Amino acid sequence: MPPIPRAQLERLSYIDFRLYFLGELRRSDLVARFGMGPAGATRDIAQYREAAPGNLDFDGTRKLYLPSATFRPLFEHAPQRVLSALSQGFGQGAAEDLSPLLRCEIPTALSRPRMDVLAPVTRAIHCGKAVRLVYHSLSGPPGERELVPFALVDSGVRWHVRAFDRKSAEFRDFVLTRIESPEVLADSAVGPRESAEHDVQWSRIVELELLPHPSHARPDVIRRDYDMPDGVLRIRVRAANAGYMLRRWNVDCSPDLSLRGPEYALGLRDPLVLYGAANALLAPGYRPPAPASPADKLPGSRQRDDTAASSR
């Protein structure tokens, strides 16, 4: 399509979405979604028809548009955003304006951060500032900390923030629901070593190869579930998040894939890729490699020792 204003591009994408996923479109859908007049909705539908000729059929009886038999989506629709829109609605407006587009059931979130906690933390991330807060740790009484946060992470169970902790001088994860009274420190300078670029666990990318679990009765179905036509699902994750992801999906990370149970549909081909990942112990069945014994030396080292012994 030729360049068009972003606002109109969003409206054309919405037309494409409704035709593709809901199978119908009315002018009133655009009017309600974007707060526009009927004449503007008519112009957008005409623009869509021009950009994607043959995509629309008009049902004069019901006064609505239908996808044609030769319909092809004009836009690429990301699966996660599509499912979010269908189950929770569109837009960034007030919560009462959002409603599911289809009957959907999604898991209840048991752990939700308070907005008066989340907002200062996200402001600090966006502005590159530190934040002072009280943190409730499992390992001790509540205490004041200064953090330099740089990312939010959804572990699948709860949200946490990745941050540099000035108290321990380390990069760590802090659960948002355990944070109290955060205050953005507008005048506190953030040093270079406190930035994400110096977080080794965050910067390191771990490449995982997941397989259908060898004990699963229907590996062919597992290959379909996870779109692995060659039998392997390859994903890249940050070392800081690898343990969370593997636990969330119940991936068997034992050395011999020995875990049993219907929850283990996937296995990690090579658990050694997790070596050095700080939260690898969260991965089901993961066992760090045993420390090398004095006899377990590299061949080159053994040869040098033997040479030295023979020359004495």
Would you mind describing this structure in some detail?
By secondary structure, the protein is α+β, with helices and mostly antiparallel strands. It folds into 3 domains: about 5-95, Arc Repressor Mutant, subunit A (Orthogonal Bundle), CATH 1.10.10; about 115-200, SH3 type barrels, CATH 2.30.30; about 205-280, no CATH class. It is about 30% helix and about 20% strand. It is built from 9 helices and 11 strands. It has helices spanning about 5-20, 25-35, 40-50, 80-90, 115-125, 200-205, 220-225, 240-250, 300-310; strands at about 55-60, 65, 130-135, 145-155, 160-165, 170-175, 180-185, 205-210, 235-240, 250, 265-270. The strands form 3 sheets. The chain has a 5-stranded antiparallel sheet, with helices on one face. Helix 1 crosses helix 3 and helix 2 packs across helix 3. The protein is globular, with a radius of gyration of 27 Å. The N and C termini lie far apart (about 80 Å). About 20% of the residues are buried.
SSE arrangement:
Blueprint: H1 6-22, H2 27-34, H3 38-51, E1 56-59, E2 64-67, H4 79-88, H5 115-127, E3 130-135, E4 143-154, E5 159-165, E6 170-175, E7 179-185, H6 200-203, E8 205-212, H7 219-225, E9 233-238, H8 239-248, E10 251-252, E11 266-268, H9 299-311
Parallel strand pairs: 10-11
Antiparallel strand pairs: 1-2, 3-4, 3-7, 4-5, 5-6, 8-9, 8-11
Helical fraction? 25-40%
Uncertain residue segments: 298-312
Number of helices: 9
Radius of gyration: 27 Å
Q: Main sheet, how many strands, which sense, barrel?
A: 5 strands, antiparallel
Domain DNA-binding transcriptional repressor CapW C-terminal dimerisation: 205-267
Domain DNA-binding transcriptional repressor CapW winged helix-turn-helix: 9-77
Domain WYL: 116-184
Region (Disordered): 285-312
